[in-house]
Structure to design on (538 residues):
Protein backbone atom coordinates (compact mmCIF):
# COMPACT_ATOMS: atom_id res chain seq x y z
CA UNK A 1 0.00 0.00 0.00
CA UNK A 2 2.67 2.45 1.07
CA UNK A 3 4.77 1.34 -1.86
CA UNK A 4 1.94 2.08 -4.20
CA UNK A 5 1.50 5.50 -2.68
CA UNK A 6 5.14 6.45 -3.01
CA UNK A 7 5.22 5.22 -6.57
CA UNK A 8 2.13 7.23 -7.37
CA UNK A 9 3.49 10.41 -5.82
CA UNK A 10 6.84 9.91 -7.50
CA UNK A 11 5.21 9.73 -10.91
CA UNK A 12 2.73 12.49 -10.30
CA UNK A 13 5.12 15.09 -9.03
CA UNK A 14 8.76 14.79 -9.95
CA UNK A 15 10.87 17.75 -8.87
CA UNK A 16 13.67 18.61 -11.18
CA UNK A 17 17.02 20.26 -10.82
CA UNK A 18 18.40 22.06 -13.80
CA UNK A 19 22.13 21.62 -13.98
CA UNK A 20 24.42 23.32 -16.45
CA UNK A 21 27.65 21.44 -16.91
CA UNK A 22 29.34 23.79 -19.34
CA UNK A 23 26.61 24.03 -21.95
CA UNK A 24 26.32 26.83 -24.45
CA UNK A 25 23.13 28.17 -22.86
CA UNK A 26 20.87 27.21 -25.72
CA UNK A 27 19.84 23.94 -24.15
CA UNK A 28 19.33 25.77 -20.87
CA UNK A 29 16.95 28.31 -22.29
CA UNK A 30 15.06 25.50 -23.94
CA UNK A 31 14.74 23.77 -20.58
CA UNK A 32 13.41 27.00 -19.13
CA UNK A 33 11.16 27.53 -22.15
CA UNK A 34 9.61 24.18 -21.32
CA UNK A 35 8.42 25.73 -18.05
CA UNK A 36 6.71 28.70 -19.67
CA UNK A 37 3.08 28.86 -20.85
CA UNK A 38 3.49 27.43 -24.36
CA UNK A 39 4.87 24.08 -23.15
CA UNK A 40 4.20 24.20 -19.43
CA UNK A 41 5.68 21.11 -17.81
CA UNK A 42 4.03 22.07 -14.57
CA UNK A 43 0.81 20.46 -15.74
CA UNK A 44 2.59 17.12 -15.27
CA UNK A 45 3.45 18.11 -11.74
CA UNK A 46 7.04 18.85 -12.68
CA UNK A 47 8.49 21.59 -10.54
CA UNK A 48 11.84 23.28 -10.95
CA UNK A 49 13.90 23.28 -7.77
CA UNK A 50 16.94 25.31 -6.93
CA UNK A 51 18.78 22.76 -4.82
CA UNK A 52 19.77 19.16 -5.49
CA UNK A 53 18.57 18.12 -2.04
CA UNK A 54 14.95 18.61 -3.08
CA UNK A 55 15.21 17.12 -6.53
CA UNK A 56 14.25 13.74 -7.93
CA UNK A 57 15.34 14.26 -11.50
CA UNK A 58 18.48 16.02 -12.62
CA UNK A 59 18.12 17.61 -16.03
CA UNK A 60 21.65 18.22 -17.18
CA UNK A 61 22.97 20.01 -20.23
CA UNK A 62 26.48 20.47 -21.50
CA UNK A 63 29.59 18.45 -22.20
CA UNK A 64 31.04 18.61 -18.64
CA UNK A 65 34.08 20.82 -18.37
CA UNK A 66 37.00 19.63 -16.25
CA UNK A 67 36.49 22.50 -13.87
CA UNK A 68 32.91 21.46 -13.16
CA UNK A 69 33.44 17.70 -13.07
CA UNK A 70 33.89 17.34 -9.31
CA UNK A 71 31.03 19.67 -8.69
CA UNK A 72 28.68 17.62 -10.79
CA UNK A 73 29.62 14.48 -8.94
CA UNK A 74 29.00 16.30 -5.68
CA UNK A 75 25.61 17.51 -6.85
CA UNK A 76 24.73 14.00 -7.93
CA UNK A 77 25.69 12.65 -4.52
CA UNK A 78 23.65 15.31 -2.76
CA UNK A 79 20.49 14.31 -4.58
CA UNK A 80 18.44 11.89 -2.50
CA UNK A 81 17.64 8.39 -3.81
CA UNK A 82 15.94 7.36 -6.01
CA UNK A 83 17.41 9.79 -8.50
CA UNK A 84 17.27 9.95 -12.26
CA UNK A 85 19.35 11.86 -14.75
CA UNK A 86 18.13 13.23 -18.05
CA UNK A 87 20.90 14.29 -20.42
CA UNK A 88 19.58 17.06 -22.64
CA UNK A 89 21.27 17.93 -25.91
CA UNK A 90 23.98 16.52 -28.09
CA UNK A 91 26.59 17.92 -25.72
CA UNK A 92 25.42 15.93 -22.74
CA UNK A 93 25.21 12.86 -24.93
CA UNK A 94 28.57 12.95 -26.60
CA UNK A 95 30.17 16.37 -26.54
CA UNK A 96 28.73 17.81 -29.75
CA UNK A 97 31.08 20.28 -31.43
CA UNK A 98 33.27 20.45 -28.36
CA UNK A 99 34.26 16.84 -28.63
CA UNK A 100 38.03 16.68 -28.59
CA UNK A 101 38.56 20.02 -26.90
CA UNK A 102 41.14 19.84 -24.15
CA UNK A 103 38.86 20.99 -21.40
CA UNK A 104 35.73 18.90 -21.85
CA UNK A 105 35.02 15.34 -20.77
CA UNK A 106 32.75 14.75 -23.75
CA UNK A 107 29.43 13.66 -22.36
CA UNK A 108 27.62 13.43 -19.08
CA UNK A 109 27.83 9.64 -18.90
CA UNK A 110 31.60 9.94 -18.48
CA UNK A 111 30.90 11.32 -15.02
CA UNK A 112 27.52 10.18 -13.69
CA UNK A 113 25.02 7.50 -14.77
CA UNK A 114 22.34 8.70 -17.19
CA UNK A 115 18.78 7.35 -17.55
CA UNK A 116 17.36 9.23 -20.50
CA UNK A 117 19.09 10.91 -23.42
CA UNK A 118 17.31 13.68 -25.30
CA UNK A 119 19.02 14.39 -28.62
CA UNK A 120 19.09 17.70 -30.42
CA UNK A 121 21.27 20.75 -30.57
CA UNK A 122 19.52 22.26 -28.80
CA UNK A 123 16.79 19.79 -27.89
CA UNK A 124 13.35 21.28 -28.46
CA UNK A 125 11.24 21.92 -25.36
CA UNK A 126 8.71 19.35 -26.56
CA UNK A 127 11.50 16.82 -26.93
CA UNK A 128 12.60 17.54 -23.38
CA UNK A 129 9.01 17.11 -22.22
CA UNK A 130 8.83 13.84 -24.07
CA UNK A 131 12.04 12.71 -22.42
CA UNK A 132 10.71 13.49 -18.96
CA UNK A 133 7.39 11.78 -19.68
CA UNK A 134 9.17 8.69 -21.01
CA UNK A 135 11.22 8.59 -17.83
CA UNK A 136 8.06 8.77 -15.74
CA UNK A 137 6.57 5.98 -17.81
CA UNK A 138 9.53 3.81 -16.94
CA UNK A 139 8.99 4.10 -13.21
CA UNK B 1 31.83 43.55 10.92
CA UNK B 2 32.85 42.27 7.54
CA UNK B 3 31.64 39.17 5.77
CA UNK B 4 32.94 37.44 2.71
CA UNK B 5 30.34 35.95 0.41
CA UNK B 6 31.43 33.69 -2.40
CA UNK B 7 28.69 33.31 -5.00
CA UNK B 8 28.87 30.56 -7.53
CA UNK B 9 31.12 29.19 -8.99
CA UNK B 10 28.30 27.60 -10.80
CA UNK B 11 26.55 30.50 -12.37
CA UNK B 12 25.22 28.96 -15.51
CA UNK B 13 23.58 32.10 -16.71
CA UNK B 14 26.70 33.35 -18.35
CA UNK B 15 28.82 31.79 -20.99
CA UNK B 16 31.34 31.22 -18.28
CA UNK B 17 29.86 30.21 -14.95
CA UNK B 18 31.51 32.61 -12.67
CA UNK B 19 32.41 32.98 -9.06
CA UNK B 20 31.74 36.21 -7.25
CA UNK B 21 33.41 36.97 -3.98
CA UNK B 22 31.88 39.83 -2.07
CA UNK B 23 33.01 41.59 1.04
CA UNK B 24 29.98 42.90 2.85
CA UNK B 25 29.47 45.02 5.89
CA UNK B 26 26.04 44.43 7.28
CA UNK B 27 23.90 44.34 4.21
CA UNK B 28 26.03 46.65 2.13
CA UNK B 29 28.54 45.29 -0.34
CA UNK B 30 31.92 46.88 0.15
CA UNK B 31 33.88 45.08 -2.49
CA UNK B 32 33.47 42.37 -5.07
CA UNK B 33 35.80 40.08 -6.92
CA UNK B 34 35.16 37.94 -9.98
CA UNK B 35 36.63 34.56 -10.80
CA UNK B 36 36.15 33.13 -14.24
CA UNK B 37 36.87 29.98 -16.13
CA UNK B 38 34.38 27.40 -14.96
CA UNK B 39 32.78 27.02 -18.34
CA UNK B 40 36.01 27.11 -20.25
CA UNK B 41 35.70 24.63 -23.07
CA UNK B 42 38.64 25.61 -25.21
CA UNK B 43 36.67 26.88 -28.17
CA UNK B 44 39.45 29.11 -29.46
CA UNK B 45 41.91 26.26 -29.52
CA UNK B 46 39.36 23.99 -31.12
CA UNK B 47 38.77 26.56 -33.85
CA UNK B 48 42.33 26.15 -35.01
CA UNK B 49 41.70 22.53 -35.90
CA UNK B 50 38.52 23.10 -37.86
CA UNK B 51 38.03 24.39 -41.38
CA UNK B 52 36.47 27.76 -42.16
CA UNK B 53 33.05 26.31 -42.80
CA UNK B 54 33.12 24.05 -39.73
CA UNK B 55 34.05 27.04 -37.62
CA UNK B 56 30.75 28.75 -38.37
CA UNK B 57 29.01 25.99 -36.46
CA UNK B 58 31.56 26.09 -33.69
CA UNK B 59 31.37 29.85 -33.17
CA UNK B 60 27.60 29.59 -33.20
CA UNK B 61 27.87 27.36 -30.17
CA UNK B 62 29.96 29.79 -28.14
CA UNK B 63 26.75 31.12 -26.69
CA UNK B 64 23.21 29.94 -27.11
CA UNK B 65 21.36 33.22 -26.72
CA UNK B 66 23.41 35.29 -29.11
CA UNK B 67 24.39 32.37 -31.30
CA UNK B 68 23.77 34.27 -34.51
CA UNK B 69 25.94 37.14 -33.27
CA UNK B 70 29.04 35.04 -32.94
CA UNK B 71 28.48 33.22 -36.19
CA UNK B 72 27.85 36.48 -38.05
CA UNK B 73 30.85 38.16 -36.51
CA UNK B 74 33.03 35.26 -37.58
CA UNK B 75 31.56 35.11 -41.07
CA UNK B 76 32.03 38.85 -41.57
CA UNK B 77 35.71 38.49 -40.82
CA UNK B 78 36.19 35.25 -42.71
CA UNK B 79 34.56 36.70 -45.82
CA UNK B 80 37.11 39.49 -45.82
CA UNK B 81 39.95 36.98 -45.59
CA UNK B 82 38.42 34.78 -48.29
CA UNK B 83 37.91 37.89 -50.44
CA UNK B 84 34.28 37.28 -51.22
CA UNK B 85 31.27 39.44 -50.71
CA UNK B 86 27.79 38.18 -49.94
CA UNK B 87 25.08 39.25 -52.42
CA UNK B 88 22.61 41.94 -51.29
CA UNK B 89 19.75 39.55 -50.65
CA UNK B 90 21.98 37.31 -48.57
CA UNK B 91 23.14 40.25 -46.49
CA UNK B 92 19.57 41.42 -45.89
CA UNK B 93 18.49 37.99 -44.77
CA UNK B 94 21.51 37.62 -42.51
CA UNK B 95 20.79 40.81 -40.63
CA UNK B 96 17.08 40.11 -40.59
CA UNK B 97 17.89 37.12 -38.44
CA UNK B 98 20.18 39.35 -36.35
CA UNK B 99 17.35 41.70 -35.53
CA UNK B 100 14.95 38.86 -34.80
CA UNK B 101 17.55 37.45 -32.48
CA UNK B 102 17.83 40.79 -30.73
CA UNK B 103 14.07 40.76 -30.18
CA UNK B 104 14.16 37.27 -28.73
CA UNK B 105 17.12 38.09 -26.52
CA UNK B 106 15.60 41.29 -25.14
CA UNK B 107 12.25 39.65 -24.46
CA UNK B 108 14.09 36.90 -22.66
CA UNK B 109 15.95 39.48 -20.63
CA UNK B 110 12.80 41.38 -19.72
CA UNK B 111 11.36 38.18 -18.38
CA UNK B 112 14.49 37.51 -16.35
CA UNK B 113 14.44 41.02 -14.92
CA UNK B 114 10.82 40.54 -13.93
CA UNK B 115 11.65 37.20 -12.33
CA UNK B 116 14.54 38.65 -10.34
CA UNK B 117 12.41 41.53 -9.16
CA UNK B 118 9.86 39.03 -7.88
CA UNK B 119 7.35 39.69 -10.68
CA UNK B 120 6.86 36.20 -12.04
CA UNK B 121 3.75 36.81 -14.11
CA UNK B 122 5.74 39.31 -16.16
CA UNK B 123 8.28 36.58 -16.76
CA UNK B 124 5.61 34.19 -17.98
CA UNK B 125 4.05 36.85 -20.23
CA UNK B 126 7.26 37.84 -21.96
CA UNK B 127 8.34 34.24 -22.44
CA UNK B 128 4.99 33.39 -23.93
CA UNK B 129 5.33 36.23 -26.44
CA UNK B 130 8.90 35.26 -27.06
CA UNK B 131 7.53 32.07 -28.60
CA UNK B 132 6.13 34.21 -31.43
CA UNK B 133 9.58 35.31 -32.49
CA UNK B 134 10.95 31.82 -31.87
CA UNK B 135 8.35 30.50 -34.32
CA UNK B 136 9.39 33.07 -36.90
CA UNK B 137 13.04 32.13 -36.46
CA UNK B 138 12.20 28.47 -36.73
CA UNK B 139 10.26 29.11 -39.90
CA UNK B 140 13.16 31.02 -41.46
CA UNK B 141 16.02 28.84 -40.37
CA UNK B 142 14.62 25.48 -39.34
CA UNK B 143 15.83 25.58 -35.75
CA UNK B 144 14.74 27.44 -32.68
CA UNK B 145 18.04 28.49 -31.22
CA UNK B 146 21.03 27.64 -33.36
CA UNK B 147 19.83 28.99 -36.66
CA UNK B 148 22.82 27.92 -38.74
CA UNK B 149 21.66 30.30 -41.44
CA UNK B 150 25.06 31.81 -42.13
CA UNK B 151 27.44 30.38 -44.60
CA UNK B 152 30.59 31.77 -46.13
CA UNK B 153 29.40 34.13 -48.85
CA UNK B 154 25.78 34.52 -47.85
CA UNK B 155 22.99 32.61 -46.18
CA UNK B 156 21.64 29.11 -46.57
CA UNK B 157 17.91 29.63 -46.80
CA UNK B 158 15.70 31.94 -48.79
CA UNK B 159 12.48 33.64 -47.81
CA UNK B 160 9.26 33.44 -49.84
CA UNK B 161 6.20 35.69 -49.93
CA UNK B 162 4.11 33.60 -47.56
CA UNK B 163 6.89 33.66 -44.99
CA UNK B 164 7.23 37.41 -45.33
CA UNK B 165 3.52 37.80 -44.62
CA UNK B 166 3.84 35.56 -41.60
CA UNK B 167 6.71 37.61 -40.22
CA UNK B 168 4.70 40.81 -40.60
CA UNK B 169 1.76 39.19 -38.83
CA UNK B 170 4.04 38.10 -36.01
CA UNK B 171 5.45 41.61 -35.76
CA UNK B 172 1.98 43.01 -35.30
CA UNK B 173 1.41 40.78 -32.29
CA UNK B 174 4.83 41.57 -30.86
CA UNK B 175 4.35 45.30 -31.26
CA UNK B 176 1.01 45.21 -29.51
CA UNK B 177 2.48 43.14 -26.71
CA UNK B 178 5.49 45.43 -26.30
CA UNK B 179 3.18 48.42 -25.98
CA UNK B 180 1.35 46.48 -23.32
CA UNK B 181 4.59 45.94 -21.42
CA UNK B 182 5.20 49.65 -21.47
CA UNK B 183 1.77 50.14 -19.98
CA UNK B 184 2.32 47.49 -17.33
CA UNK B 185 5.61 49.12 -16.49
CA UNK B 186 4.08 52.59 -16.27
CA UNK B 187 1.20 51.46 -14.08
CA UNK B 188 3.27 49.21 -11.87
CA UNK B 189 4.94 51.40 -9.27
CA UNK B 190 6.30 48.45 -7.30
CA UNK B 191 8.18 47.17 -10.31
CA UNK B 192 9.58 50.59 -11.10
CA UNK B 193 10.37 51.18 -7.46
CA UNK B 194 12.29 47.93 -7.29
CA UNK B 195 14.47 48.75 -10.29
CA UNK B 196 15.05 52.48 -9.86
CA UNK B 197 18.30 53.47 -8.21
CA UNK B 198 19.70 49.92 -8.12
CA UNK B 199 23.15 49.25 -9.53
CA UNK B 200 24.19 52.80 -10.26
CA UNK B 201 26.90 53.34 -12.83
CA UNK B 202 27.64 56.95 -13.69
CA UNK B 203 28.37 58.09 -17.21
CA UNK B 204 32.03 58.71 -16.38
CA UNK B 205 32.43 55.25 -14.83
CA UNK B 206 30.72 53.63 -17.77
CA UNK B 207 33.16 55.45 -20.02
CA UNK B 208 36.24 54.59 -17.97
CA UNK B 209 35.35 50.93 -17.60
CA UNK B 210 34.69 50.46 -21.33
CA UNK B 211 31.18 49.14 -20.96
CA UNK B 212 29.30 48.11 -24.07
CA UNK B 213 25.75 47.61 -25.20
CA UNK B 214 22.66 48.43 -23.14
CA UNK B 215 24.78 48.92 -20.01
CA UNK B 216 26.66 51.78 -21.67
CA UNK B 217 23.56 53.14 -23.35
CA UNK B 218 21.66 53.22 -20.07
CA UNK B 219 24.41 55.46 -18.72
CA UNK B 220 23.88 57.93 -21.52
CA UNK B 221 26.60 56.79 -23.92
CA UNK B 222 25.12 56.37 -27.39
CA UNK B 223 27.48 53.68 -28.56
CA UNK B 224 26.25 51.21 -31.12
CA UNK B 225 28.30 49.50 -33.80
CA UNK B 226 25.35 49.61 -36.15
CA UNK B 227 25.47 53.41 -36.05
CA UNK B 228 29.16 54.09 -35.47
CA UNK B 229 30.49 51.70 -38.07
CA UNK B 230 27.57 50.98 -40.38
CA UNK B 231 27.84 47.77 -42.30
CA UNK B 232 25.31 45.99 -44.52
CA UNK B 233 22.17 48.13 -44.80
CA UNK B 234 22.43 49.90 -41.47
CA UNK B 235 23.30 53.22 -43.08
CA UNK B 236 20.13 53.12 -45.19
CA UNK B 237 17.60 52.17 -42.57
CA UNK B 238 16.33 54.76 -40.15
CA UNK B 239 16.67 53.83 -36.50
CA UNK B 240 17.70 55.51 -33.29
CA UNK B 241 20.18 54.39 -30.72
CA UNK B 242 18.09 54.00 -27.59
CA UNK B 243 19.64 55.60 -24.55
CA UNK B 244 18.63 56.47 -21.02
CA UNK B 245 20.38 58.61 -18.45
CA UNK B 246 19.07 57.14 -15.23
CA UNK B 247 22.26 54.99 -14.99
CA UNK B 248 20.48 52.21 -13.06
CA UNK B 249 18.77 48.89 -13.69
CA UNK B 250 15.58 50.69 -14.63
CA UNK B 251 17.49 52.53 -17.35
CA UNK B 252 18.82 49.24 -18.68
CA UNK B 253 15.29 47.88 -18.87
CA UNK B 254 14.06 51.02 -20.61
CA UNK B 255 16.86 50.88 -23.16
CA UNK B 256 16.02 47.30 -23.98
CA UNK B 257 12.32 47.98 -24.41
CA UNK B 258 13.10 50.91 -26.68
CA UNK B 259 15.49 48.75 -28.66
CA UNK B 260 12.69 46.28 -29.24
CA UNK B 261 10.78 48.95 -31.11
CA UNK B 262 13.86 49.93 -33.12
CA UNK B 263 14.35 46.31 -34.09
CA UNK B 264 10.73 46.02 -35.23
CA UNK B 265 11.35 49.03 -37.45
CA UNK B 266 14.46 47.47 -38.96
CA UNK B 267 12.75 44.12 -39.52
CA UNK B 268 9.90 45.84 -41.35
CA UNK B 269 12.38 47.74 -43.48
CA UNK B 270 14.14 44.52 -44.44
CA UNK B 271 10.93 42.71 -45.33
CA UNK B 272 9.65 45.59 -47.45
CA UNK B 273 12.94 46.29 -49.23
CA UNK B 274 14.27 42.79 -49.70
CA UNK B 275 16.25 42.89 -52.96
CA UNK B 276 16.03 40.12 -55.55
CA UNK B 277 18.91 37.96 -56.60
CA UNK B 278 20.97 35.07 -55.29
CA UNK B 279 21.40 34.52 -51.58
CA UNK B 280 24.97 33.23 -51.57
CA UNK B 281 28.12 33.03 -53.65
CA UNK B 282 30.52 30.14 -53.72
CA UNK B 283 33.39 30.46 -51.30
CA UNK B 284 36.95 29.27 -51.89
CA UNK B 285 38.39 26.66 -49.54
CA UNK B 286 41.51 28.60 -48.60
CA UNK B 287 41.93 32.12 -47.34
CA UNK B 288 44.84 34.35 -48.15
CA UNK B 289 47.26 35.01 -45.29
CA UNK B 290 46.30 37.99 -43.22
CA UNK B 291 44.39 39.10 -40.19
CA UNK B 292 41.10 40.81 -39.62
CA UNK B 293 39.08 42.29 -36.79
CA UNK B 294 35.34 41.99 -37.08
CA UNK B 295 32.83 43.99 -35.04
CA UNK B 296 29.19 43.29 -34.54
CA UNK B 297 26.49 44.70 -32.30
CA UNK B 298 25.16 41.71 -30.40
CA UNK B 299 22.08 42.08 -28.18
CA UNK B 300 24.39 42.57 -25.20
CA UNK B 301 26.87 44.90 -26.82
CA UNK B 302 29.82 44.98 -29.11
CA UNK B 303 31.19 41.62 -30.06
CA UNK B 304 34.70 41.45 -31.48
CA UNK B 305 36.35 38.57 -33.33
CA UNK B 306 39.99 38.64 -34.32
CA UNK B 307 40.87 36.11 -37.00
CA UNK B 308 44.31 35.34 -38.36
CA UNK B 309 44.87 33.22 -41.41
CA UNK B 310 48.07 31.62 -42.65
CA UNK B 311 46.83 30.71 -46.10
CA UNK B 312 45.50 27.26 -45.25
CA UNK B 313 41.92 26.06 -45.04
CA UNK B 314 41.88 26.66 -41.27
CA UNK B 315 42.27 29.83 -39.25
CA UNK B 316 45.55 30.13 -37.42
CA UNK B 317 44.07 32.01 -34.52
CA UNK B 318 40.61 33.04 -33.45
CA UNK B 319 40.11 35.41 -30.56
CA UNK B 320 36.67 36.25 -29.28
CA UNK B 321 35.86 39.21 -27.07
CA UNK B 322 32.27 38.71 -26.02
CA UNK B 323 30.30 41.72 -24.78
CA UNK B 324 29.67 40.26 -21.34
CA UNK B 325 33.40 40.19 -20.71
CA UNK B 326 33.61 43.91 -21.36
CA UNK B 327 30.91 44.52 -18.78
CA UNK B 328 32.44 42.53 -15.93
CA UNK B 329 34.56 45.39 -14.66
CA UNK B 330 31.51 47.62 -14.54
CA UNK B 331 29.51 44.96 -12.70
CA UNK B 332 31.90 45.20 -9.77
CA UNK B 333 31.41 48.96 -9.69
CA UNK B 334 27.63 48.48 -9.78
CA UNK B 335 27.69 45.96 -6.97
CA UNK B 336 29.79 48.19 -4.73
CA UNK B 337 27.62 50.02 -2.18
CA UNK B 338 24.63 47.94 -3.24
CA UNK B 339 22.71 45.52 -1.04
CA UNK B 340 23.05 41.74 -0.91
CA UNK B 341 19.43 41.52 -1.93
CA UNK B 342 20.21 43.43 -5.12
CA UNK B 343 22.91 41.04 -6.31
CA UNK B 344 20.63 38.96 -8.54
CA UNK B 345 19.06 42.04 -10.05
CA UNK B 346 22.31 43.84 -10.74
CA UNK B 347 23.83 40.73 -12.13
CA UNK B 348 20.84 40.12 -14.33
CA UNK B 349 21.07 43.67 -15.61
CA UNK B 350 24.22 42.99 -17.59
CA UNK B 351 22.18 40.27 -19.27
CA UNK B 352 23.01 36.77 -18.28
CA UNK B 353 20.12 34.36 -18.80
CA UNK B 354 17.58 32.61 -16.71
CA UNK B 355 19.58 29.62 -15.61
CA UNK B 356 20.48 31.61 -12.49
CA UNK B 357 17.70 29.71 -10.81
CA UNK B 358 20.12 27.25 -9.27
CA UNK B 359 22.80 29.65 -8.28
CA UNK B 360 23.94 29.31 -4.72
CA UNK B 361 25.60 31.79 -2.47
CA UNK B 362 27.67 30.99 0.54
CA UNK B 363 27.86 33.33 3.50
CA UNK B 364 31.03 33.10 5.52
CA UNK B 365 31.20 34.71 8.87
CA UNK B 366 34.57 36.38 8.80
CA UNK B 367 35.06 36.11 12.55
CA UNK B 368 34.07 32.54 13.19
CA UNK B 369 34.81 31.21 9.74
CA UNK B 370 31.46 29.48 9.78
CA UNK B 371 29.91 28.93 6.37
CA UNK B 372 26.29 29.11 5.46
CA UNK B 373 24.76 28.18 2.13
CA UNK B 374 22.15 30.56 0.84
CA UNK B 375 20.07 29.41 -2.05
CA UNK B 376 19.22 31.69 -4.87
CA UNK B 377 15.56 31.44 -3.95
CA UNK B 378 16.37 32.77 -0.48
CA UNK B 379 18.18 35.67 -2.01
CA UNK B 380 15.10 36.42 -4.01
CA UNK B 381 12.90 36.21 -0.95
CA UNK B 382 15.29 38.64 0.69
CA UNK B 383 14.97 40.87 -2.35
CA UNK B 384 11.20 40.75 -2.18
CA UNK B 385 11.13 41.61 1.51
CA UNK B 386 13.48 44.51 0.97
CA UNK B 387 11.16 45.75 -1.69
CA UNK B 388 8.28 45.68 0.74
CA UNK B 389 10.23 47.93 3.08
CA UNK B 390 11.56 50.27 0.48
CA UNK B 391 10.25 53.78 0.40
CA UNK B 392 10.67 54.30 -3.34
CA UNK B 393 6.96 53.95 -3.90
CA UNK B 394 5.97 56.62 -6.33
CA UNK B 395 8.85 56.66 -8.70
CA UNK B 396 7.63 57.49 -12.19
CA UNK B 397 8.40 55.30 -15.14
CA UNK B 398 10.62 57.56 -17.23
CA UNK B 399 9.27 56.68 -20.64
S1 LIG C 1 23.80 20.40 -27.39
FE1 LIG C 1 24.08 22.17 -28.72
S2 LIG C 1 22.65 23.68 -27.93
FE2 LIG C 1 22.91 22.15 -26.34
S3 LIG C 1 24.53 22.92 -25.03
FE3 LIG C 1 25.48 21.62 -26.58
S4 LIG C 1 26.10 22.98 -28.22
FE4 LIG C 1 24.61 24.06 -26.95
Amino acid sequence: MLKKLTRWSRIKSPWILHLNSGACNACDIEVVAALTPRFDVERFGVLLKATPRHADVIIATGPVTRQLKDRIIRIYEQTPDPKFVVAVGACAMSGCVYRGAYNVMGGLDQVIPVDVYVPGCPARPDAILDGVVKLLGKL
Amino acid sequence: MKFQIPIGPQHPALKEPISLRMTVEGEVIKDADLRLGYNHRGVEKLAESKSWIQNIYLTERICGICSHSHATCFVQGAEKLLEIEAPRRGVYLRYLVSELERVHSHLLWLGVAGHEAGFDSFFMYTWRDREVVMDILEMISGNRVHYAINTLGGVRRDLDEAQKAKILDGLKILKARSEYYLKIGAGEPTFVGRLAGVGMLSRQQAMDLCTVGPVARASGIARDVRKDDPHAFYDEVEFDVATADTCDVLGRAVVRIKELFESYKIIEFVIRNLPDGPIAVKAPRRAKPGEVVSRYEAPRGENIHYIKSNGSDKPERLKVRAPTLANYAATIEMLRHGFIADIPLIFAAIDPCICCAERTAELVDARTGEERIVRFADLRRLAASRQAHSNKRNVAWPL
Remarks:
- The domain at 43-357 of chain B is CATH 1.10.645.10 (Cytochrome-c3 Hydrogenase; chain B).
- The pocket of iron/sulfur cluster is lined by residues A 23-24, 26-27, 61-62, 89-91, 96, 121-122; B 61, 64, 146 (CB under 6 Å).
